[in-house]
Design goal:
Blueprint (H helix, E strand, L loop, with lengths): L1 E8 L6 H13 L18 E5 L3 E8 L4 E9 L4 E10 L4 E10 L15 H7 L16 E3 L1 H12 L8 E4 L11 H7 L5 E5 L2 H11 L8 E4 L8 E3 L6 H17 L9 H40 L2 H61 L16 H13 L8 H11 L6 H13 L7 H9 L2 E5 L3 E6 L6 E5 L7 H13 L1
Parallel strand pairs: 7-9, 8-9
Antiparallel strand pairs: 1-6, 2-3, 3-4, 4-5, 5-6, 8-10, 10-11, 12-13, 13-14
Helix pairs in contact: 3-5, 7-8, 11-13
């Protein structure tokens, strides 16, 4: 499965020697000792291979293509196979970085967290990455103050071209950032620009320009193409980590879905290299055949002028020469067959990876064009929350629909094909059970309510229950309920508000 892909324009200062030395440095300085290949060094070869079966690195230069391809592969004990590819095209001044994860048949399913390749950091720190128009490509957030307001206004309006997405992090009402912008910029290095508001006045002016969807603490992703609508992520207390991960996955998915030239992948480069070797073997075979025919013609001419004995000897020598030539040609045939099979195997692999990439692109395009439902700006408070609320609303509406009607059939089909789990209904029942005999707040009850997502705040004579810290979803509970039904009534009010 393709986990990450990025095409990085580089400066002309990056040479083949620099590129390969940087690859060696990347592995040698890896902070995890188990990922370092002992003895890895590059001494000017056009082909490099180092390591063993479970950890190896290979590099090849494509003759006549001005391309160097590198693959680093690690096979873990639980069956996960990580392939990291770096392909530099020095004619187009681009470096393609790709990370692929696959499994052996005996693999244990794992949920590995993605980490942006450190190689991009080395390219940035050495000054090899080309700027994105007026924007430098780095791994630190860009302060968005008065000096950048004009630049950002141009980006937001579409008048300032850029090839990478631009992430703008606005300030919360208290003047603080809604997330760790340093960490965000580091994780999106090479694939996005992160601007962090540092002036309340400029931030307010920019948000006013951006439209009604922007509130204090909103984070927006602006894409290079006008056809891709901006994505907004709204700050909610208690879900900052999930919002950050969702934002990062969105940007990474955009980068990964970009179509890549076949030669800018390791399988594509290897396929091209094998085709070149196959062409070379074919030329050598033709030369051997020509030499054989010339030798036979010459031997025949000599045989015609010799006596019978010498003719017999010559014919024996001719037979021996022919057998040796046939054996040589057979070896050419076997080598060509092996190379052809390997080239076909790599071509199929490359086509599979390209098809997977195109499916991602199609999915991303569909999501931004005209899907069944267009996702709004509300972020899940927990995984699958928004989807569950929509499906729950459809489920609640089913009894009122005319049986056998088109409307009923369409709604039933959506419910049956979208893994409706009724999460919100189960949470509502759990809340009602917790509060059915409510006689006051206890430590265990507070813990159970917090597990459901409520932030409990004690006031003078009541408690405030705020769902996931969002002030839009707040209800009040008396510290000392007036009767036995108070808890049930308050629970029903909170359930209707939150679930």
């Amino acid at each position: 499965m393709l986990v990450f892909s990025a095409v990085l324009p580089v400066r002309s200062a990056l040479t083949k020697d620099d590129f390969l030395r940087l690859v060696v440095e990347w592995n040698r300085t890896n902070p995890y000792a188990e990922n370092v290949i002992p003895g890895l060094a590059w001494n000017g070869e056009s082909h490099l291979r180092c390591g063993g079966d479970n950890l190896w690195l290979a590099a090849d230069e494509l003759p006549g293509k001005n391309i160097v391809a590198v693959r680093y592969e690690k096979r873990t004990a639980d069956g996960v196979v990580w392939d990291t590819d770096y392909v530099a095209d020095f004619s187009q001044r681009e470096v393609c970085v790709r990370l692929d994860r696959s499994y052996r048949e005996d693999a244990v399913d794992v949920n590995a967290a993605f980490s942006t390749p450190y190689f991009i950091t080395l390219l940035i720190d050495r000054g090899y990455l080309a700027p994105d128009g007026a924007l430098p490509v780095g791994h630190a957030p860009i302060p968005a103050g008065a000096a950048q307001s004009g630049l950002l206004a141009g980006i937001f309006s579409g008048s300032t071209p850029h090839r990478l997405p631009v992430v703008y992090v606005s300030l919360r009402e208290n003047g603080r950032s809604p997330m760790d912008v340093q960490k965000l910029a580091w994780r999106l290095k090479g694939v996005a620009h992160v601007f962090a508001a540092d002036s309340a006045e400029v931030d307010e002016a920019l948000r006013a320009q951006l439209g009604e969807g922007w509130r204090p603490g909103t984070v927006g992703v602006h894409y290079p193409h006008e056809t891709q609508a901006p994505r907004l992520f709204h700050y909610r207390a208690g879900i900052v980590d999930r919002m950050t991960e969702h934002l990062i996955r969105t940007v990474i998915a955009y980068s990964t879905a970009r179509q890549v030239d076949g030669l800018h992948t390791w399988p594509g480069a290897q396929s091209a290299l094998l085709r070149a070797q196959l062409d070379s073997q074919s030329a050598a075979r033709r030369a051997a055949e020509d030499a054989q025919r010339a030798a036979l013609d010459k031997a025949q001419q000599m045989a015609d002028t010799m006596d019978a004995e010498r003719t017999r000897m010559q014919r024996e020598a001719l037979s021996t020469a022919k057998s040796e030539a046939d054996a040589l040609l057979d070896s050419f045939d076997e080598e060509m067959r092996r190379l052809r099979e390997r080239a076909e195997e790599l071509t199929r692999l490359n086509e599979r990876l390209l098809a997977e990439n195109l499916r991602l692109q199609a999915k991303l395009n569909a999501a931004s064009a005209a899907p069944l439902l267009v996702r709004g700006h509300e972020t899940d408070f927990y995984p699958g929350e928004v989807k569950d609320l929509v499906l729950s609303t459809l489920s609640d509406a089913m009894p009122a629909l005319v049986p056998g009607s088109r409307r009923a059939d369409v709604v039933r089909d959506i419910l049956e094909n979208n893994d409706f789990e009724a999460l919100s209904a189960r949470n509502a029942d759990r809340l009602k059970n917790l509060l059915k005999s409510y006689a006051g707040m206890t430590a265990p009850l507070r813990k159970d309510l917090e597990n459901l997502g409520f932030v409990v705040t004690a006031e003078q004579n009541h408690y405030k229950f705020t769902y996931f810290g969002d002030s839009r979803y707040m209800t009040v509970f008396a510290k000392t309920p007036s009767d036995k039904r108070a808890g049930k009534n308050s629970a029903s009010d909170a359930a209707r508000m939150a679930f």
